[in-house]
Amino acid sequence: MHGEFELITRWLAPDAATLGPQSGVALGAGDDACLLDPGAGQQLVVSVDTSVEGRHFPADAPAWAVGHRALAVSLSDLAAMGARPRWCLMSLALPTADGAWVAEFSRGFHALCRATDVCLTGGDVTTGERAVSVTVMGEIAAGQALRRDGARPGDVLAVTGALGGGAGGLARWQAGERDLERELLARYLLPQPRLVAGQLLVGKATAAIDVSDGLLADLGHVLDASGVGATLDVECLPLVPGLTDALGETAALDAALAGGDDYELLVTLAPESFDEARRALASIDLELTQIGHIHEGQGIQGIPPDARRGWQHFSGGTP
Amino acid sequence: MHGEFELITRWLAPDAATLGPQSGVALGAGDDACLLDPGAGQQLVVSVDTSVEGRHFPADAPAWAVGHRALAVSLSDLAAMGARPRWCLMSLALPTADGAWVAEFSRGFHALCRATDVCLTGGDVTTGERAVSVTVMGEIAAGQALRRDGARPGDVLAVTGALGGGAGGLARWQAGERDLERELLARYLLPQPRLVAGQLLVGKATAAIDVSDGLLADLGHVLDASGVGATLDVECLPLVPGLTDALGETAALDAALAGGDDYELLVTLAPESFDEARRALASIDLELTQIGHIHEGQGIQGIPPDARRGWQHFSGGTP
Question: Where do the segments described as Disordered lie (chains A, B) (predicted)?
Answer without folding.
Answer: 298-319
